[in-house]
Design goal:
Length: about 220
């Protein structure tokens, strides 16, 4: 009888934790569809060209959407690894052995440093956090996003671009230097891939998540 009681209490604690975690995910700021459409560039000609950028081509015009509102980080890494041909090409495979997001949700999401640790667990590739970047340093890295041997995941504040929303992670598919547009392979189905001016993306990256700046995750 006592054993049943202990199991029941443990089950209740886990259940409450899952409910609370779910509430945190559901409670994230919603961005209206018209705000998404009007905030970024998706003209057919530019999007077609974007999918032909050297790194974007490796994604094969496909993005695996994040499984819930909290798992953009693991989804971003999984998509990047899939484009590399890595075995850790799903959220679950990226998270395997990390103990992160073990409830099925990443409570309050993952910081850039937390995501770096997750990303390094199931690959032999080098994973580097890039933060506190100047605008010129950011530009230099964007120019390198067209190198097929590199992948960049950008951590940014949606509100700076869309007027609402919170922190988010997604892979970068490449950069049009002449047009000064960045191709972001958004892992959220409601947003999907889009192009945005470099300065606006920099402003969204140059924000704080807690006591540290957001930035880029560099995988090589």
């Amino acid at each position: 009888m006592k054993r049943w009681r202990y199991v029941s209490i443990s089950s209740m604690v886990i259940a409450v934790g899952l409910v609370c975690a779910g509430a945190l995910v559901v409670g994230q700021s919603h961005v209206p569809a018209d705000a998404i459409a009007s905030s970024v560039t998706r003209t057919p000609e530019l999007m077609e060209r974007a999918w032909h950028l050297p790194v974007a081509v490796t994604f094969q015009r496909h993005v695996d959407w994040q499984s819930n509102g909290s798992r953009c980080g693991p989804a971003a890494v999984a998509n990047a690894y899939r484009s590399f041909g890595e075995a850790a090409r799903t959220e679950d495979k990226v998270l395997a052995g990390t103990w992160s997001c073990w409830t099925g949700v990443c409570i309050m999401g993952l910081t850039l440093d937390e995501l770096a640790k997750v990303a390094q667990t199931n690959t032999s590739r080098k994973v580097t956090v890039l933060r506190d970047l100047s605008e010129n340093q950011f530009l230099e890295h964007l120019r390198r996003t067209n190198d097929p041997g590199r992948r960049y995941i950008v951590n940014f504040d949606r509100a700076q671009i869309f007027g609402a929303g919170s922190g988010h992670h997604s892979p970068i598919g490449g950069y049009f230097e002449a047009e000064d547009l960045v191709f972001v392979l958004d892992v959220n189905f409601s947003f999907q891939p889009w192009l945005v001016e470099r300065k606006r993306l920099f402003d969204a990256v140059n924000t704080f998540d807690g006591d540290k700046k957001r930035g880029l995750l560099f995988i090589e």
